[in-house]
């Protein structure tokens, strides 16, 4: 390995480096200075995020196992931004007494998952892909059970680890059948040799099922609501945005490269699951009172919308998916940031009825949450509208009119339930609404980044155009 | 090449047979054990254990996971030792470069070990 080759892997190597720095800081500081680890981790993560954007060479490593293309680097940068916002938002939560003695572990586990996701996105064969996927999943289960005195939190951890074991098993079965029929695990060799023999179709179905668990597409979504509700808010936000984003990224890459020979088949599969995912996610979201469950079902239906771009399969569709994930990171983290701030300040109030009359007491937080929900619903001034618009364009371009109709109808349905919390905050009267509280600096910074992201990413068309130039399709 | 890509429904028969055998095995074993096994419902049979001390209290209470922790840590360092075997076999061929790589690997694991010790995971008595 030459020295320049390290530049190709700079995301992973830098993340490993900061993980080691945080570990050393954890070992060699006294208990009094442990709180310094929070700003240290955030600053290190910010540096890594910025360095990721610097221009650097592209190429392949390890005989094609590791691929660094411009598009994949862009995806990693987007995930870095998401992780950075989660780091900032969790800073005030980690200060509480219960979490005093496990601050650095939170950051270490998050960074480990991020390394896994980066390897997964850069994978050039199924082996690297699977290793990255596992590294991205297992530490999350430990994080879901982070809140040690809450039964629901440990329930979430157990459910997550069981579901990921099950889905990994199915995924591996599919991969083994692919290897059995093609004789190689390298993406470029598989994509050439992949046909539509019965066994290969079966292997694709298994692979699809495994990935559907990770992205929580409808027949395989049942774990999502319980895990999202039980895990601490900041972990939930990471799970719903960064984890899901990474899985969507590699899934869309693999569909248009590895499985390009059977594109007609997977488009049919995706068509049906996308339609069901959008509809069911929306219908269940209407009935929720707990805001974390509410956002869990909302994220299921968002996954359905994201699949529209993949079904398009064109270069526009891929760009729309990546752009939508970027928008989704800002909007969803904005919503979760407000929920986390209120939950921390009010001792765990997460129900929609608790938010009655919030605008009177905490106007800034209510406005931020409103903006985030507008962006998730796709109301014009904010970025979510443009994200949805490009996804719909990608589908319309290929002539999927029925799917487009279903998607538009679902957008209208989703408007109803996204406005429910808004109604609670602005219109509903409450006898005892959540009292005014001052959020600390980190929370403010996190929310300001989210709001700025929602506005700027929508209006700066340069961003979409840039992603478009990197994009590739079938 | 074109004829290879056209598959008739009968080509799926091997997969169907495999699925049926797998499902059939599970179902048959489950049903047959119920039918064939002797059914003796006496009070002694329904006890948790037929011999030994009688069960008492609730099993769902907090208990120390020291054994588990030690076992997991043992597995971790056991795997580390496994990685040293191929290095030992190829020690001469790998030369100084391999030695440095291995030093990095062991250094990282040593860091983890120090972390474990500082966190008190190896302390048996927590009082």
Describe this structure in words.
- The complex is a heterodimer of chains A (474) and B (127).
- Chain A is mostly helical and 474 residues long.
- Chain A has one domain (3-470).
- Helices cover 76% and strands 1% of the residues of chain A.
- Chain A has helices spanning 3-8, 10-27, 37-53, 70-94, 103-121, 126-144, 151-182, 187-193, 198-215, 222-230, 233-257, 263-286, 291-312, 315-345, 358-361, 363-377, 383-397, 401-426, 441-459, 461-470; strands at 59-61, 66-68.
- Chain A has a two-stranded antiparallel sheet.
- In chain A, strand 1 (59-61) and strand 2 form a beta hairpin.
- The two termini of chain A are 33 Å apart.
- The model of chain A has no long low-confidence stretch (mean pLDDT 88).
- Chain B contains four helices and no strands.
- Chain B has a domain at 66-119.
- The model of chain B has no long low-confidence stretch (mean pLDDT 82).
- The termini of chain B are far apart.
- Chain B is mostly helical and 127 residues long.
- Chain B has helices spanning 13-36, 43-46, 66-89, 91-119.
- The A-B interface holds A 20, 23-24, 26-27, 195-199, 202 and B 4-5, 7, 11-12, 14-15, 108, 111-112, 114-115, 118.
């Amino acid at each position: 390995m030459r020295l320049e080759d390290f530049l190709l892997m700079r995301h992973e190597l830098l993340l490993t480096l900061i993980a080691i720095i945080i570990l050393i800081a954890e070992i060699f500081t006294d208990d009094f200075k442990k709180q310094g680890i929070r700003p240290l981790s955030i600053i290190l993560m910010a540096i890594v995020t910025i360095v990721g954007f610097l221009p650097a060479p592209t190429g392949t490593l390890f005989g094609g196992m590791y691929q660094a293309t411009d598009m994949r680097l862009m995806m990693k940068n987007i995930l870095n931004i998401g992780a950075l916002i989660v780091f900032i938002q969790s800073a005030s939560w980690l200060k509480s007494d219960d979490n005093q003695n496990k601050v650095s572990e939170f950051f270490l586990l998050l960074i480990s998952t991020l390394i896994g996701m980066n390897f997964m996105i850069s994978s050039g064969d199924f082996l690297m892909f699977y290793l990255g996927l596992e590294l991205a999943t297992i530490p999350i289960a430990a994080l879901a059970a982070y809140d040690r005195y809450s039964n629901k939190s440990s329930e979430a951890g157990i459910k997550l680890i069981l579901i990921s074991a099950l889905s990994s098993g199915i995924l591996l079965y599919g991969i083994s059948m692919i290897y059995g029929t093609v004789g190689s695990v390298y993406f470029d060799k598989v994509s050439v040799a992949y046909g539509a023999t019965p066994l290969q179709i079966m292997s694709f179905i298994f692979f699809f099922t495994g990935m559907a668990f990770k992205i929580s597409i409808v027949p395989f979504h049942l774990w999502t609501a319980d895990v999202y509700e039980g895990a601490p808010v900041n972990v939930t936000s990471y799970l719903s945005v960064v984890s899901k984003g990474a899985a969507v990224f590699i899934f869309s890459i693999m569909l248009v490269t590895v499985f390009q020979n059977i594109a007609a088949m997977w488009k049919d599969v995706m068509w049906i699951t996308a339609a069901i995912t959008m509809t069911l996610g929306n219908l269940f979201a209407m009935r929720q009172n707990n805001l974390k469950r509410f956002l869990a079902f909302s994220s299921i239906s968002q996954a359905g919308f994201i699949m529209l771009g993949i079904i398009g399969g064109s270069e526009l569709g891929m760009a729309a998916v990546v752009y939508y994930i970027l928008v989704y990171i800002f909007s969803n983290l904005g919503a979760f940031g407000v929920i986390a701030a209120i939950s921390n300040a009010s001792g765990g109030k997460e129900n929609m009825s608790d938010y009655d009359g919030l605008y009177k007491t905490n106007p800034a937080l209510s406005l931020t949450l409103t903006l985030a929900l507008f962006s998730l619903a796709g109301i014009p001034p904010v970025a979510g509208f443009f994200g949805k618009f490009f996804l719909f364009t990608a589908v319309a371009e290929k002539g999927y009119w029925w799917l487009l109709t279903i998607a538009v109808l679902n957008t209208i349905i989703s408007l109803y339930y996204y406005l429910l919390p808004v109604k609670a905050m602005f219109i509903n009267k409450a006898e005892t609404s959540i009292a005014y509280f001052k959020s600390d600096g980190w929370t403010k910074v996190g929310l300001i980044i989210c709001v700025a992201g929602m506005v700027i990413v929508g209006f700066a068309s340069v961003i979409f155009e840039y992603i478009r130039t990197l994009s590739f399709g079938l | 090449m074109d004829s290879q890509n056209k598959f008739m429904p009968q080509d799926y028969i091997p997969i169907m047979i495999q699925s049926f055998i797998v499902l059939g095995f599970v179902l048959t074993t489950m049903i047959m054990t119920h039918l064939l096994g002797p059914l003796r419902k006496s009070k002694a049979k329904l006890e948790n254990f037929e011999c030994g001390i009688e069960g008492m209290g609730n099993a769902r209470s907090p208990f120390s996971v020291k054994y588990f922790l030690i076992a997991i840590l043992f597995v971790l360092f056991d795997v580390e030792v496994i990685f040293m075997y191929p290095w030992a076999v190829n020690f001469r061929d790998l030369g100084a470069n391999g030695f440095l790589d291995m030093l990095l690997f062991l250094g990282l694991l040593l860091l983890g070990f120090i972390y474990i010790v500082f966190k008190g995971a190896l302390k048996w008595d927590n009082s």
